[in-house]
Amino acid sequence: MxxxxxxxxITGASRGIGAAAARRFAEAGxxxxxxxRGSDAxxxxxxxxxxxxxxxxxxxxxxxxEVEQTVQNCVTAFGRIDVLVNNAxxxxxxxxxxxxxxxxxxxxxxxxxxxxxxxxxAALPRMVAQGSGTILTIGSGAAHGPxxxxxxxxxSKAGALMLTRMADKEYGEAGIRxxxxxxxxxxxQMQREIKASGVNPVxxxxxxxxxxxxxxxxxxxxxxxxxxxEYKGAEVSLRDPGIRSRIGVA
Length: 250
Ligand SMILES: NC(=O)c1ccc[n+]([C@@H]2O[C@H](COP(=O)([O-])OP(=O)(O)OC[C@H]3O[C@@H](n4cnc5c(N)ncnc54)[C@H](OP(=O)(O)O)[C@@H]3O)[C@@H](O)[C@H]2O)c1
Description:
This protein has nine helices and seven strands. By secondary structure, it is an alpha/beta fold. It has a single domain, classed as NAD(P)-binding Rossmann-like Domain (Rossmann fold).
């Protein structure tokens, strides 16, 4: 997939899937806006990719005004926004419902669900004005079934999948491509936190059970192309061997 001079804004770009995606999009020719709360890691990654192709924008996606300013900063730096990758997300605090701290539970919703809406809300007016744009959101199998002690995460991912469907419903005919990607389990910091919780079957998986974040990055770039159009308003599953072979990962 040739992404030459396409402008891609990636949330959660400081590590894991987001950092791998930033490198992959840049290799494909894109200009990338790197977003996370912490500024050091995204600044280092922007330096690695190169100042003319990458910009680091510290932002907490749970605050709409920060996300709106971030999209504005991306447009100021690169002139437009072609792709939004809603990737940032959290799993902690993992806890059963009767013991969950309500404020901390709500903070996960603010990031994993409202953060996705904030990205869409900030990017859609510009994309609609351009007549084109792709919005990719990292989903999860947790959107489809309950996982012990993950009520916040499962609820947020189910809601985020509906936001992809909503964006397609309302803006598909305006040229907006909204797709979700369910990656399976991926070898990142999030899986270290899940392992440390020791709560449910996911925490018992071996590190070797997880796919590398580079596979997810390859999927995201593929999803920007016409081969993925059949998944507009829907979810791509990276557990599907057919999808893996179309993307070119083992
Ligand atoms: N790993 C898996 O097995 C797996 C499976 C299915 C889905 N996913 C999803 O994949 C996505 C990426 O996860 P990952 O595995 O790469 O996790 P990760 O390594 O923990 O990375 C999470 C990223 O999100 C950023 N972030 C967290 N809260 C944020 C906020 N409020 N505002 C802006 N950025 C924020 C983090 O940076 P800062 O802390 O600096 O903000 C970091 O860059 C998540 O949506 C996750 O739910 C992961």
